[in-house]
């Protein structure tokens, strides 16, 4: 799988911040670390640009993707709060994206 971070455009910092704050609020994360990144994907069938979101709740990492550029992500694109346990990554999980 080939993933690469896209170049930042002038509008991306605001979009990255906006999505990060939605994630913080949705999953009640307080001061937890949250990563929001827009990546290019060259894998056949993969959207050309997607938004990867990872966050930590205590020692547990969670992640998900939104299959559109970060500037196009809306609050409705985020999973519901009750889905948080399903976003948790198992200890032995290996991922190139986040």
Overview in brief:
This protein has 98 residues and is α+β, with helices and mostly antiparallel strands. The chain is built from 2 helices and 4 strands.
Task: Describe the protein's topology.
Elements lengths: L2 E3 L6 H15 L7 E8 L7 E9 L2 E7 L17 H4 L11
Antiparallel strand pairs: 1-2, 2-3, 3-4
Supply Rg: 13 Å
In sequence order, what are the helices and strands, one letter per element? EHEEEH
Number of strands: 4
N/C terminus separation? 13 Å
Largest sheet: 4 strands, antiparallel
- Classify the oligomer: single chain
Number of helices: 2
Mean pLDDT: 86
Strand order of the largest sheet: 1-2-3-4
pLDDT under 50 segments (min length 5)?
A: none
Q: What characteristic shape results from the CA principal axes?
A: globular
Number of structurally distinct domains: 1
Question: What is the strand content?
Answer: 25-35%
Overall SS class: alpha+beta
């Amino acid at each position: 799988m080939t993933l690469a971070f896209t170049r930042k455009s002038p509008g991306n910092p605001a979009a990255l911040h906006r999505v990060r704050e939605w994630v913080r609020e949705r999953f009640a994360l307080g001061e937890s670390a949250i990563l929001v990144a827009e990546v290019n994907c060259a894998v056949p069938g993969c959207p050309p640009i997607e938004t990867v979101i990872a966050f930590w709740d205590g020692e547990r990492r969670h992640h998900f993707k939104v299959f559109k550029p970060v500037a196009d992500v809306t609050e409705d694109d985020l999973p519901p709060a009750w889905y948080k346990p399903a976003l948790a990554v198992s200890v032995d999980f290996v991922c190139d994206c986040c």
